């Protein structure tokens, strides 16, 4: 009962946020706080509002990462992550979302409205400068980390990681260096992953050649499942 009530309040809060974010809100009415809904109904409401606020206003439905973001947001509605970590920040800030994906913007936006924390790791000074506009907007929910990712993940001690996004490497025809780097990242982070954690990786490729292969082997050997499989790949334990 407590969990349902919390979700109900959260959904009402999102409804108000949505109304502040769009010019026309005539058809949106927050659910009465005294009315109880099933968990499925509340999750669907949460999911729909996030999709409209976060994705449709920031990312084209034609961008090849769009469906992956939809999938991970839906997974979030089932697990409500509190700690999110990404390796590689959005170096162009809020620009070029249809090319770069704007992960820091999207996950920062989500973190704000579910009272979570995003740790965005990038050792490149120019990339961090490029992401500063996003950090300023969501400063209470994003911490931009100047560090080498493997070292930072090894010593991460802010709690269990509920969501890990690996995007510190560029896609290249020679995928071996990136694959090995991601394997080191997941190896460093793995002991810190929560029971319901999800791992998402960018640049997995469209034709079975990409940066994901070694991480996929690592996770599959430990009983993880492929939750979503396109250019981005998502792994979960269940």
UniProtKB/TrEMBL annotation:
Gene3D superfamilies: Vaccinia Virus protein VP39. It comes from the Eukaryota. Keywords: Signal. InterPro entries: SAM-dependent_MTases_sf. The keyword Metal-binding does not apply. Residues 1-15 form the signal peptide. This is Methyltransferase domain-containing protein. It comes from Stentor coeruleus.
């Amino acid at each position: 009962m407590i969990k349902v009530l919390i979700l109900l309040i959260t959904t009402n809060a999102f409804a108000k946020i949505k109304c502040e974010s769009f010019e026309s809100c005539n058809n949106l009415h927050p659910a009465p706080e005294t009315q109880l809904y099933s968990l499925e109904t509340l999750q669907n409401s949460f999911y729909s509002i996030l999709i409209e606020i976060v994705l449709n206003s920031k990312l084209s439905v034609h961008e090849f990462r769009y469906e992956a973001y939809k999938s991970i947001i839906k997974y979030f509605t089932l697990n409500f992550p509190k700690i999110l970590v990404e390796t590689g920040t959005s170096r162009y800030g809020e620009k070029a979302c249809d090319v770069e994906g704007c992960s820091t913007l999207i996950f920062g936006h989500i973190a704000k409205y579910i009272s979570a924390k995003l740790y965005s790791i990038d050792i490149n000074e120019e990339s961090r400068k490029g992401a500063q506009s996003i950090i300023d907007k969501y400063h209470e929910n994003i911490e931009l980390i100047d560090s080498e990712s493997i070292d930072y993940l090894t010593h991460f001690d802010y709690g269990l990681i509920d969501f890990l996004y690996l995007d510190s490497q560029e896609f290249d025809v020679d995928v071996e260096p990136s694959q090995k780097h991601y394997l080191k990242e997941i190896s460093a982070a793995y002991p810190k992953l929560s029971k319901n954690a999800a791992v998402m990786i960018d640049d997995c490729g469209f034709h079975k050649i990409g940066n994901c292969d070694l991480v996929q082997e690592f996770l599959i050997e430990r009983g993880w499942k492929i939750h979503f499989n396109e250019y981005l790949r998502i792994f979960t334990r269940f």
